[in-house]
Amino acid sequence: MTEPSSPTAKNDPYIALRFPEFRSYLLMRFFLTIGYQVQGVVIGWYVYSLTKDPLSLGLVGLAEAIPAIGIALYGGYVADKSNKRSLLIKVVALILLSSTVMFVVTLPSVTQSLGQSMLINVIYLMIFVNGFARGFYGPTAFSLMAMIIPREHYPNSSTWNSSTWQTASIIGPAIGGLLYGFVGIHNTFLFILACLSIAFIATFLFKNRPATYVRTTSIYQSLSEGLRFVFKTKMLVGALSLDLFSVFFGGAVALIPVIATEVLHVGATEFGFLRAAPAVGAVLTMLLMTRFSPMGKPWRNLLLAVTGFGLSIICYGLSTNFYLTLFFLFLEGAFDSVSVIIRSTILQLLTPDDMRGRVSAVNQMFIGSSNEIGQFESGLTAKLMRTVPAIVFGGSMTLLVAGITWFKTKKLVPLSLDDISRS
C-alpha cells in the first residue's frame, strides 16, 4: 500500500481513502446523505400528493432554509471553538430525532387522529429542526475533514467527499421512489431511520481533537472576522455568489413531482429515477475527475459548468418525454458536479485552519441553503407562472448570472490552481 506521506502519493487517485479516519468520515456522510435524500424524496411526493399545490414544495425548502441560514454564522463560530467529534454526535442525534418524529406521525392511526393540516404542519416543523441541525453540521464536518487529511491531498479528498455524497444521492432518490411506491411512507421511514442510525454510530469513530480557535474577542467580533475574510477574498466571494444565484434560479429539480405527475404522467417509481438522474450524472463525472482534474484553469471551468447547468435546466423544462427528461437531468448533475469540486477545493485551499468553521458557515449560507431557497423560488414561480415557464425562466436567469460573472471576473479566468494557492 502507498504510504500517505510518500512523494508518489500525490499522484495516487485513492490517496485520501488510505486515511482510516477519512473512510469513517465518508461512511458517516454516505449513510446520512442516503437517509436525508430518501426522506426528501418521500416528503416532497407525500406533501404534494396531499396538497396538489406546487407552492407546498417551495415551503418545504423554505422551512429548512430559514433556520439553516439564521444559525449558520453562529454554527461556524461554535464549530471553530468546539470538539468536532462531540458536536457532530449531537447534530446527527438531532437529525435522527426529527426523523423519528416524522416516522411516528406517519403511522396510520396517528395520521388519522392528527388530520391533514396538523400532519403537514408537524412535517414542516421537523424539517425546520433539520435545517437548524444543518447550520451546525456543515461547518463542523468541513472543519473535521480538513483535520484528517493533509493539505496537499485536499483536491483528492474533495473529489471523494463529493463523489460519496453524489453516490448516496443516486441511491437515495431511487430507493425513496421504489419504497414509497411499494410499501408507503411509513415503512420507508424505517429505512431512513436505519441509515441515520449508522451515520450516528460512525460519528463515534472520530478522534477527539482540541479546538483550533480560542476566543479572545466577543462573538460579534469573531463572526465579523469570518465575514471579512470571505468578502476580501475575491475568488471566494465570486464562487459563492455564483453558486447562490445560479442555484437560486436553477432550483427547478424541486418541481420534479409536478413534472412527473402533470407533464410526464408517471408514478412514484419513475419519479424516483427522475430524482436520481442528476446524481447519476454527477457521480460519473466526479469519477472521471479523479483522473482528469478540472483545476487546470478552475475559474474558466467553473463558468463553463454553470453555463451548461443553466442550459440543461431549460431543456429539462421543455421536455415532454420521460427519457429525454432523464437525460437532461443527468446533464444537470454532471455540470453541477464540476462546479462542486472546483468550489470546495478553492474553499479548502484559501481558508486558514483557525477560521474554517466560520468561513464554512458563510459558505453554508451561500451554497448549503441556496438549494432550499431555490426550491422555494421554483415553487413560488410555478404557482405564479405555471411549471414549465417557471423552469425555463430559472434556467435563463442562471445563464444570465454566468454571463455577468464572467464579465465581472475576467482576470480570474486564466488563473491555475497554483496561482490560487499562492494568492
What features would you describe in this structure?
This protein is mostly helical and 423 residues long. The chain is built from 16 helices and no strands. The longest helix has 49 residues. The two termini are 34 Å apart. The mean pLDDT is 80.
Beta-strand portion reads under 5%
Number of domains: 1
* Poorly predicted sequence stretches spanning 5 or more consecutive residues: none
Number of strands: 0
What is the name of the CATH topology? Growth Hormone, Chain: A
CATH class category name: Mainly Alpha
| CATH homologous superfamily identity | MFS general substrate transporter like domains
SSE layout:
Elements: H1 20-51, H2 54-81, H3 84-105, H4 108-114, H5 116-148, H6 154-202, H7 219-232, H8 234-249, H9 256-263, H10 268-289, H11 298-318, H12 322-350, H13 356-368, H14 370-385, H15 387-408, H16 417-422
Helix pairs in contact: 1-2, 1-5, 1-6, 2-5, 2-13, 2-14, 3-5, 3-6, 5-13, 6-10, 6-12, 8-11, 8-12, 8-14, 8-15, 10-12, 11-12, 11-15, 14-15
State the main characteristics.
423 residues; mainly alpha; Growth Hormone, Chain: A; 16 helices
Give the gist of this structure:
80% of the residues lie in helices and 0% in strands. With 423 residues, it is mainly alpha-helical.
